[in-house]
Amino acid sequence: MKKQSGASPKTDTAGLPRKGIFLLITLSLFWGLAWPAMKISVSEIPPWTFRSYCIVMSGIGILLLAKVNGFKLKMPLHELKPLCFVALFSITGWHLFSAHGLLRMDASRAVIIAFTMPLWANILSALLLKERITSTRILALGLGLSALGILIRPELEAVGAAPLGAVFMFGAAVSWATGTVLIKRTDWNTPTTVLTGWQLLLGGIPVVMGAAFFEPSGISLNVSARAIFALTYIIFFPMIYCHWAYFTLVRIFPASIASIGTLAIPVVGVFSSTLILNESVGISEIVALFLVVTALSIAIFFQKPG
User: Among 104, 60, 107, which residue's Cα sits nearest to residue 208?
Assistant: First the structure.
């Protein structure tokens, strides 16, 4: 590679890491803050309607970003079928399960269960992609299952209670993991940003249909400004900005460094929920959070090749 003259190389080499660090911090912050924002939204906006707005608006926004960046929005026809299948899990399943889960449990507990996703992805990768299950993966899975048990146990012990919130969030995590693994089974020619935009729109079709059937009245005129602000925040920051930031981040840093942002999201989610929603966080939530972050750390930093 030719060495460029002038000051531009210094600007480039110094600027990219600073940009990456900024993206890493904002990614963790905005995705973490999404959890109390989602709880505020689903408390006033019906879940199917809420997710319809999130998915459709963010899908359009991401495709507009792709267009501005010079990408062609047209997808090869042979990629549409596998993308529809992926979207059914990673978009339709994840968004509906998580919305219904947040209706029934605290956001600070929901985010911990949601971020057991990489652990289920490890199991599914072994089953569907024939990847080897290593001892570190087994350890990470055991820690994640322990965290799940800690969070579900109080609801099981409550007289007459059904742990529906935890069950929905578990379904969300497994659905997200399934979509993540399925997307690896296809060699995509479509740019990632374009693929993400279409994935959102395709996965949003059954959600919009469900909203029209189950919630024909849509958003109530009595919905508070707080809920509308939370919905707007979710669309523009966690959905549009964070998807763009993540794809930019993996081009700047190695994947292992980019993954650090994942570790911070449940931490931000738990503690922002306590501050914004006045949710109580006890020893069980703190222990479960520690177990999940430890499990994610093991999965990211102690991977064995093959």
Answer: 60
Q: Which residues contact 227 (CB under 8 A, 6 or more apart)?
A: 40, 41, 43, 44, 45
Query: What is the per-residue DSSP string for 251-267?
Result: HHS-HHHHTHHHHHHHH
User: Could you tell me which residues come within 8 angstroms of residue 178 by beta carbon, excluding any fewer than 6 positions away?
Assistant: 89, 90, 93, 120, 124
Q: How far is residue 276's CA from residue 111's CA, in Å, rounded to a whole number? A: 15
Q: What is the pTM of this model?
A: 0.82
Report d(CA 206, CA 68) in Å as an integer. Answer: 28
Phi–psi pair at 302, nearest 5 degrees:
-120, 35
Residue 100 near residue 48 (C-beta atoms within 8 A)? no
Q: How far apart are CA 268 and CA 272, in angstroms?
A: 6
The pLDDT averaged over each successive group of 10 residues in the chain (306 residues) is 40 55 87 95 95 97 94 94 95 96 89 85 84 80 83 62 82 93 89 93 97 92 93 96 80 61 82 91 86 80 59
**Residue ranges per structural domain of the chain:** 37-301
